[in-house]
Amino acid sequence: MVTIYDTAAKASVSAMTVSRVIIYTGSWEAL
Q1: Which of 20, 22, 25, 31 has its CA 20 to 30 A from that of 14?
Q2: What is the domain extent for residue 24?
Q3: Number of domains in the chain
């Protein structure tokens, strides 16, 4: 169970990082 939660936590952090990169890229393209 611990490993499952750990993997899920890492996956959500990775997803947040990816969406931030997409948002930053979008704002650079808007400029």
Answers
A1: 31
A2: 1-30
A3: 1
As a whole number of Å, the CA-based R_g of the chain is: 14
Please compute, for residue 8, the number of CA atoms within 13 A of its CA located in the half-sphere on the CB side. 5
Residue-wise pLDDT tens digits, 1-28: 678 889 999 999 999 999 999 998 888 7
- Looking at the chain, list the stretches that DSSP marks H as alpha helix, in order from N- to C-terminal side: 2-30
Give the separation between CA 26 and CA 15, rounded to whole angstroms. 16
Q: Which two tokens stand for residue 20?
A: 């931030």
Evaluated on CA atoms 10, 15, 18, 23, the torsion sign reads negative
